[in-house]
């Protein structure tokens, strides 16, 4: 009995040592040529980019809500303050439900890029619509604004869910930064609206000019988000590392993201610092 007890304790000790060794191998990340771990390299840049992308996710919609004073003046008969929200929400809800149902087969990069591009185009459309009609109201212009609000809902469903899902593969700080950007969007658009109204406070048609400047800034900001997500974000070492890790664990939605980051083959996935056999 004493011998069997010793053998049992020895076996348990061996299992404990094996588990500790396996855990150590899983958490070890070989340094790159600069001596830094790819798991951490570029983390601060990624946090900043995630904050900007999170801000861009709600910036156009918050912009539309923030210039409601202009729309009330332009469409006094159509109750824009209530109708625009009623238009936005169903499109966002239906789109995100469809995307969630098919999430395993959706290209994440294409989804997020489509959302940011639609945000940018829709923001520009609001600006072009106002310039084309010379600031005149009417049913046609109002319908155009409602269509744009629906496009914002579709864009939000693409980007917000896609980015949170994408960042869930990575460090918690990146998700937190993205959500902080979402939260800051309202404060930023409100501050920007105060600034644009103050600039044209004493000029003729100052309300319209302030709204035009406001949406020009919004459209430009969304274009920057498209460029950030398309060309900057996928090339950050920390992002490449976690996407490679997700691919090695069996994720099928990050292949295009890996290609954008310059990782094409399985051998390159292992070389980024994650061994799928561990």
UniProtKB/TrEMBL annotation:
<keyword id="KW-0813">Transport</keyword>
<dbReference type="Pfam" id="PF01733">
    <property type="entry name" value="Nucleoside_tran"/>
</dbReference>
<dbReference type="GO" id="GO:0005337">
    <property type="term" value="F:nucleoside transmembrane transporter activity"/>
</dbReference>
<protein>
    <recommendedName>
        <fullName>Equilibrative nucleotide transporter 3</fullName>
    </recommendedName>
</protein>
<keyword id="KW-0812">Transmembrane</keyword>
<dbReference type="InterPro" id="IPR002259">
    <property type="entry name" value="Eqnu_transpt"/>
</dbReference>
<dbReference type="GO" id="GO:0005886">
    <property type="term" value="C:plasma membrane"/>
</dbReference>
<feature type="transmembrane region" description="Helical">
    <location>
        <begin position="113"/>
        <end position="133"/>
    </location>
</feature>
<feature type="transmembrane region" description="Helical">
    <location>
        <begin position="83"/>
        <end position="101"/>
    </location>
</feature>
<keyword id="KW-1133">Transmembrane helix</keyword>
<keyword id="KW-0472">Membrane</keyword>
<feature type="transmembrane region" description="Helical">
    <location>
        <begin position="139"/>
        <end position="157"/>
    </location>
</feature>
<feature type="transmembrane region" description="Helical">
    <location>
        <begin position="178"/>
        <end position="200"/>
    </location>
</feature>
<comment type="similarity">
    <text>Belongs to the SLC29A/ENT transporter (TC 2.A.57) family.</text>
</comment>
<feature type="transmembrane region" description="Helical">
    <location>
        <begin position="45"/>
        <end position="63"/>
    </location>
</feature>
<feature type="transmembrane region" description="Helical">
    <location>
        <begin position="212"/>
        <end position="233"/>
    </location>
</feature>
């Amino acid at each position: 009995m004493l011998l069997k007890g010793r053998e049992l304790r020895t076996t348990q000790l061996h299992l404990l040592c094996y588990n500790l060794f396996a855990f150590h191998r899983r958490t070890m990340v070989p340094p790159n040529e600069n001596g830094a771990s790819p798991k951490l390299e570029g983390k601060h840049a990624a946090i900043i980019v995630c904050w900007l992308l999170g801000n861009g996710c709600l910036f156009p919609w918050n912009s539309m809500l923030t210039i409601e004073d202009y729309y009330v003046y332009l469409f006094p008969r159509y109750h824009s303050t209530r109708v625009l929200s009623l238009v936005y929400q169903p499109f966002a809800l239906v789109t995100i439900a469809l995307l969630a149902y098919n999430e395993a087969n959706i290209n994440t990069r294409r989804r997020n890029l489509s959302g940011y591009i639609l945000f940018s185009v829709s923001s520009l459309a609001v600006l072009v619509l106002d310039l084309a009609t010379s600031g005149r109201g009417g049913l046609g212009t109002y319908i155009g604004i409602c269509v744009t609000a629906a496009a914002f809902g579709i864009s939000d469903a693409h980007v917000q869910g896609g980015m949170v899902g994408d960042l869930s593969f990575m460090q918690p700080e990146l998700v937190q930064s993205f959500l902080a950007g979402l939260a800051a969007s309202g404060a930023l658009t409100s501050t920007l609206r105060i600034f644009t109204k103050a600039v044209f406070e004493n000029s003729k048609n100052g309300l319209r000019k302030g709204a035009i400047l406001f949406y020009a800034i919004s459209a430009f900001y969304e274009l920057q988000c498209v460029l950030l997500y398309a060309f900057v974000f996928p090339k950050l070492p920390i992002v490449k590392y976690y996407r490679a890790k997700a691919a090695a664990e069996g994720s099928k939605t990050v292949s295009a993201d890996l290609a954008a980051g310059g990782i094409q083959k399985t051998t390159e996935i292992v070389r980024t610092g994650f061994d799928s056999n561990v």
